[in-house]
Batch of 2 targets.
Target 1
Amino acid sequence: MGNAKQSAYYYQSAWGYDLIAYAGPETGVRDRASYVLQQGKIRLVLTTAMSPDSEISKHVLQHGDGVKVLALWVDDARASFEATTKRGAKAVMEPTVLKDAFGEVVVSAIQTYGETIHKFVERRNYTGSFLPGYVPKKSLFTVKGVGLKHVDHCVGNVELGRMNEWVKFYEEVMGFKLLLTFDDKDISTEYSALMSKVVSNGNGYIKFPINEPAEGKKKSQIEEYIEFYKGAGCQHIAVATDDIIATVTELRNRGVEFLYVPDNYYDEVWDRVGKINEDVNAIRRLNILVDRDDEGYLLQLFTKPVQDRPTVFYEIIQRCGAKSFGKGNFKALFESIEREQDLRGNL
Ligand code: FE2
């Protein structure tokens, strides 16, 4: 990102992430500064380069602030690298052993959509704060968490016609399974059509929906993303909470901007989803979306993009049995996104 130091402050003050570790010039890393933020099991690493000829600076110039690395915790980073590259993955980093006084971590990496990469991180022999090379660093003020627990899913936007190719990559190279398919009949509004398939690993902990634009009357929200991100990339990260009312109340109080859902959404939503064990007035007041599937219900809400380019955003999600992705909300959600796209002059 352009300014990791200031972004780290935003994630601490607005989102309630604790600063836990740092690497940079003061710790002997000459070319960059990285801030590690943690809330629950979620870890974000924000990095800015020190010079314009760095790969990181080139990435920021091209894509703006964005998600470069989706790191995956593995038992054996060498085996993950060998298996995936043998099955066709493009190698980005050969297995590398990082060591310090707290033990060792093995890291390797492969390419996924756009310039995004997956890092495989094997940390069973490590007890330090984050990774070798990082020093523990604490927030300079009292950070109040907002109840975020873990990453629920990470969504990728890919170019027109390339969704199936990336689904095949996750199936054949990564050994994931296709979980769900949404076609343009499920998720087209008057303008903003898209198609989506969700792939998941064996235990279901990792879920990667992959979107591609579909033909619509005007520009798809996925096309807008790709135009401004300058290619395929991570569209949103969904973070889970056990109490979305408390989480969203705090985030709104701290100035985090969410998509607007019109009041008439709530005129029919309770007929659609039935009874839920939540304060329905608070849900309406906070503009939270509700959906139900065969296994239960879910509550969700989407932020506006968290940088000036209309690219990466976050989803807050509370699952009460439901394992799906809020299909019943797609129409209301996409109409809301289109209102924003229209305001930006990109519809
Ligand atoms: Fe999502």
Target 2
Amino acid sequence: MHRIAVVAGDGTGPEVIAEGLKVLDAAARRFKFRYETRAFDFGGERYLKTGETLLPNEIEELRSFNAIFLGAIGHPKVKAGVLEQGILLKLRFTLDQYINLRPVKLLPGVETPLKGKGPDDIDFVVVRENTEGLYAGAGGTLRRGTPDEVAVQESINTRKGVERCIRYAFDFCRKRAGKKKLTLCGKTNVLTYAFDLWERTFNEVAAEYPDIETNYAHVDAICMWMVKNPEWFDVIVTDNMFGDIITDLGAMIQGGMGIAAGGNINPAGVSMFEPIGGSAPKYAGKGVINPLAAICACQMMLDFLGEREAAAKVEEAVAKTIKNHIKDMGAGRMGHTTGEVGDLVVKYLAE
Ligand code: IPM
Ligand code: MN
């Protein structure tokens, strides 16, 4: 029995999560596994009513689930940072989801803005460190609002945090049916303390994985290669901030936010799966948002729950849905409503 906590969240979150749950249910019927869900109401609406983001007992409760399925967090009436830090980052940090796994895979039939590139060229995974770096919240401000204002925001990199992320990336690369190539993405020419630690750790760990080819690229160069030669990549490992940035670029080359999903992974605890686009408040409630990213997040969740066959079949059903019905991944341009897209995936899943 898989116990799944569902945090639909803000904006279009509830709409896309509903489609993900439809697919989960269809997968359970077809592949005969049992699951139960429980909804949690964290998000902007609750915050505006009660002033609460996440209560300590709620985080404790979440630890007893096998996975968390998250829609989106972010509300136009709440100051930037409050919900992101109070809910999303709080969950990632407290549940020690130290990996943010973001596949960049162009499915057949999906249009990429990269001219001349196809599904064979765009198929790699970014392993983003998810608990440290610039996201750790270290720093402060002095004399704020005066001409003498000082703002410091520091990147925290621990040997333990860096090493566990790099080890995860090597193991992941070894298991993945890919090119067996791991690229470290950093900025050793400027961030000479942080990425010195990353590079030394990477090289030390690499010695234990002679079957994995390794290389290094600066983050700016990675942005260039992701556009010019995405086929070079198999697995990329990087810090929290660079991982955040390059995975938005990755989402674009795989067809947009409508299809991009990720997992916040604690290999020994509870992991959380989410579409990586935001809450898109301007599309909320209109039935125009693309649910495929949430459905792909559900697919990753199934894989992590050990439902490999179901996960593979969901991916196939998503690919068929796109190939046969969807020209444009963008909100309002799919030619189908949010609900119809979910229904199509369910239909192909049953075949
Ligand atoms: C993401 C998002 C978050 C991040 C924000 C909402 C805090 O952009 O999941 O990539 O920066 O990690
Ligand atoms: Mn991001």
